Amino acid sequence: MTRKEFLTALDQYLVTMSASEKADIISDYEEHFRVGLENGKTESEIAASLGSPYDVANQFLDGTRKTAPVASTPHPAATVSQGYTTAQPRPAATTSQGYTTAQPRPATATSQDYATAQPRPVTAASQGYTTAQPRPAAAPSQGYANQQGYATQQPRPSVSSQGYATQQGYAAQSGYATQQPSAPQQNYANPYAAHAETPYTEPSYGGQQPGYPRSASSQSSAYVDYDRAAEERRYEPKKQSESKFNSTGLIMLIVLCVLLIPTVGGIIVSLMMSLYGAVLGFATAGGSLIAVGTAFSAESLWICLGLIFIGISFLALTGLLIMASVEATKLVVKLVKYCIKEGKKLVTEGSF
Amino acid sequence: MTIQFKKGVLEMCVLSMLQNGDRYGYDVACDLSKIMEISDGSVYPVLRRLKEDGYVTSYLEESPGGPPRKYYVITQQGCDYMNALKSEWTQLTSNINTLLDNGGQPT
To answer: 20 to 30 Å CA-CA from B31: which of A4, A148, A283, A327?
Structure first.
């Protein structure tokens, strides 16, 4: 990976950061490359020692609870508000409960957890979300507080796995799963801390549910792994196609060179032969006519006519050969042009 | 080793290096990768976090024949934090060493 590729990829993955933060981070890595080059390293060596831009970006975003887009194309929706936007479009029947965010949760779990939940008016859903912030985690009726409840690992063994799945779904979006796929339980304290810092009035409850259907932990980590693999592959196909193209071009060039020599040679030789034949025929015929003129006889006349016929045949053959040569030359010119074009490509790409 | 723990250790190491004098990122990354297996790219997120937490600050200094480099410098707050981390670390490692020396028997 070159310096430019690394910085571009990093810039892309830092999409959720503000422009100034991003510029600051990029400048640090630019400096790193600069110093590395001064120390005699190559761009690819430096890039390799820095690690993958995706991992680097996630380490930055980890602290801010934002995430690098898991897809290879950046999508601006991957912001901190994601986790909370999911609550908004939910049906009224469940709005009063914090667990409305937990899409895959079965009814039993809901009743269990919400045994303590106060019956709430439908409109309380948005309130729950906006007012959840200042409340302690001990208020289980709060939609958001319930998430916090999970975060603080309250003993709820029967639902913990589901709570985990929910958290994990969120964690996958926040880039957390990529960081600690093996120790997810320990993550809880962090999302909690991050939630506490996050201004909850800020998220626009736009009703978007990007990526939310990923609920099971295995699914979400698989998803993330897949995307990481996809991210790594982004640089592979390019190389492959380049090398494939180059070998094809090379073979084509060789074949053309081999074909070109006999073709051109054949055209020249056949032209010369036919011209020579025609000249010979006419010369002989002319000579014969002179001979006939000087010593006229029936035999010599026939010989003379025969020679003229041979000369005309040669001439006709010459015409045909010239026409064929013209066509062949046209073809050769075409081939040479193509050859030059492809050859130029190969040279400019530097992999010839 | 969890990421959290590793992060803490990383921060401690970086702060320790900065206590010895101001350094620029590349320098820190080079030395850090000598003592533990991390990619150089991981150093900048650590430095950024430390900066956000007020444990380090940075300034630009001209470099011979090139654009200025960003030097990181530890703050008083960073020194205090570093000392706290260090005593925790010393305590932990001595406990672990004792455990290992005793063949798994906690004293």
So the answer is: A4
